[in-house]
């Protein structure tokens, strides 16, 4: 059994905070810590590693549909359902015999041999926070919480796999998964902020888009940073003399990574989409979701191992997410509006992963916190906007439905071109191969080479906590067809 001590748990929080703060404030970072603060960080910087690294450094890209994507109009259509369940869209045949998808996803249909669909994920988190915490961190509570009590899978993987020698952070969120309204739906919790993502915000399709504090091109600025580092190291030498456990060395390693982000040409290129030929950018779509997915591909190709990209914002419609209650959206108009962007971005990412020979190493996962109610509801709109009638207009919607949802898996050396599990004729619940959140987590951990059966991390009290409980990787995905 692999365990980490209470002391190791507290050490992570300290050096992680230092890393995140430095990445955030760049040039100003060296003068922001007091002497007591540095002493505290000295006592909290010992790195622990609870997993054996695989021979080949695998990676995962999680494409997250915040709000809950309707399985019925996308990956699990139900054409035989009654009219109060069935929407206006029909299923279409795909490249894979026997696999049918919603008609709003024609590009998916053309490359169905490159992915597999799980149709039987189920859990008990009916609210957005609870559903997200169950899916992303394995929290089994049904209630919504203001913030997570368990670290999300991305932070766990980053904590266990990060390589301090890498120029780039090992976990990057491109429009990161962080919050749902005022609720925090993902985070490193007791692993400390250093296990969380390096966050990239904004719209990468905009001509003026730029990731701050990355790739300085002015030689004078680079020399200035180098001089500041040298001065800080000299001033801290006496502290190193008191450092019996090498704590300051860990601090130096985070400073080194931050400096690399500021000065490295490799880092600058990884984030710079202008290095891509225009035809590649057009393939993904010159819109926010397409360019987010393109950046995700560039990052894993550059060596980043955990990348998330949340598909939210204006391309979703009036309320900026997939939460298609009738009061928010006309569900079918909303899906029709966003589907072309979603279809293009996701399929371009999958095809590109295969075209560039990354399909063994990189696993692409498309998911949300839950599905939508099979039975169509009707309510009055709370406001006019994209895919929503004016306030007071009665329109259709689909509500929260944790009992059934679908997840797409591609790349990662998996068996593709298959449907795993099944729901009943209305799409209300699994009737075959029910899969829970811990199975989902185990599947991703297994791809990343993490021994999820035997890895325990200390919580805030120092109690060893398993990263997966009663979960198993989805065996149907193992090995190529």
Largest beta-sheet details: 8 strands, mixed
Structural class, please? alpha/beta
Strand arrangement, major sheet? 8-5-9-1-10-15-4-16
User: Which shape, going by the Cα principal axes?
Assistant: globular
The percent range for helix content is: 25-40%
Number of helices: 13
Low-confidence stretches: 5-54, 228-253
Q: Which percent band covers the strand fraction? A: 15-25%
Mean pLDDT: 85
What's the N-to-C terminus distance?
34 Å
What value does the Rg take, in angstroms?
23 Å
Number of beta-strand segments: 20
Counting copies of identical and different chains, the oligomeric state is single chain
Description:
By secondary structure, the protein is an alpha/beta fold. Helices cover 32% and strands 15% of the residues. The protein has 13 helices and 20 strands. It has helices at residues 6-25, 35-42, 106-110, 128-137, 153-161, 219-235, 237-242, 247-263, 265-271, 278-284, 288-301, 331-355, 437-447, and strands at 59-64, 91-93, 100-102, 115-121, 171-174, 179-180, 183-184, 198-200, 306-310, 362-367, 371-372, 377-380, 394-397, 400-401, 405-411, 419-420, 422-423, 430-432, 456-458, 464-466. Strands 8-5-9-1-10-15-4-16 form an eight-stranded mixed β-sheet, sandwiched between helices. A two-stranded antiparallel ribbon has the order 2-3. It has a two-stranded antiparallel sheet with strand order 6-7. A hairpin with a 6-residue loop joins strand 2 and strand 3 (100-102). Helix 6 packs antiparallel against helix 8. The longest helix has 25 residues, at 331-355. 52% of the residues are buried.
């Amino acid at each position: 059994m692999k365990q980490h001590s209470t002391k190791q748990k507290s050490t992570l929080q300290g050096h992680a905070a230092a890393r995140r703060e430095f990445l955030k404030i760049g040039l100003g970072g060296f003068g922001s810590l007091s002497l007591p603060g540095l002493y505290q960080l000295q006592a909290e910087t010992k790195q622990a590693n609870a997993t054996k690294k695989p021979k080949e450094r695998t990676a995962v890209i999680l494409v997250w549909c915040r709000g809950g994507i309707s399985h019925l109009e996308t990956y699990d259509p139900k054409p035989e359902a009654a009219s109060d369940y069935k929407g206006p869209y029909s299923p279409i045949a795909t490249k894979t015999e026997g696999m049918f998808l919603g008609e709003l996803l024609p590009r998916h249909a053309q490359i169905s041999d490159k992915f597999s669909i799980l149709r039987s994920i189920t859990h008990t988190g009916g609210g957005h926070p609870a559903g997200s915490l169950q899916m992303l961190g394995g929290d089994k509570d049904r209630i919504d919480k203001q913030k997570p009590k368990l670290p999300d899978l991305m932070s766990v993987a980053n904590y266990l796999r990060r390589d301090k020698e890498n120029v780039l952070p090992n976990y990057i969120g491109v429009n990161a998964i962080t919050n749902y309204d005022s609720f925090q739906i993902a985070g490193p919790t007791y692993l400390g902020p250093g296990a969380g993502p390096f966050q990239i915000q904004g719209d990468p399709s905009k001509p003026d888009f730029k990731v701050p504090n990355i790739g300085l091109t002015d030689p004078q600025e680079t020399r200035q940073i180098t001089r500041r580092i040298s001065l800080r190291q000299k001033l801290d030498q006496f502290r190193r003399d008191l450092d019996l456990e090498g704590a300051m060395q860990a601090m130096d390693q985070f400073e080194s990574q931050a400096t690399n982000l500021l000065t490295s040409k490799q880092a600058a290129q990884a984030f710079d989409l202008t290095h891509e030929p225009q035809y590649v950018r057009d393939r993904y779509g010159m819109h926010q979701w397409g360019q987010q997915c393109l950046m995700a591909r560039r990052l894993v190709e550059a060596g980043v191992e955990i990348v998330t990209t949340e598909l939210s914002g204006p391309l979703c419609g009036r309320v900026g997410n997939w939460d298609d209650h009738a009061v928010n959206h006309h569900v079918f108009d909303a899906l029709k509006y966003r589907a072309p962007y979603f279809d293009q971005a996701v399929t371009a990412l999958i095809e590109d992963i295969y075209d560039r020979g990354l399909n063994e190493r990189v696993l692409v996962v498309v998911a949300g916190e839950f599905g939508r109610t099979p039975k169509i509801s009707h309510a009055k709109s709370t406001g006019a906007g994209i895919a929503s009638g004016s306030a007071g207009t009665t329109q259709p919607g689909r509500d929260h439905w944790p009992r059934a949802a679908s997840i797409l898996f591609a790349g990662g050396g998996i068996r593709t071109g298959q449907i795993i599990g099944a729901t009943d004729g209305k799409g209300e619940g699994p009737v075959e191969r029910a899969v829970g959140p811990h199975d989902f987590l185990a599947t991703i951990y297994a791809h990343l080479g993490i021994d999820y059966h035997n890895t325990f991390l200390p919580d805030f009290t120092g109690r060893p906590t398993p990263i997966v409980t009663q979960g198993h990787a989805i065996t149907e995905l193992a090995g190529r067809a």
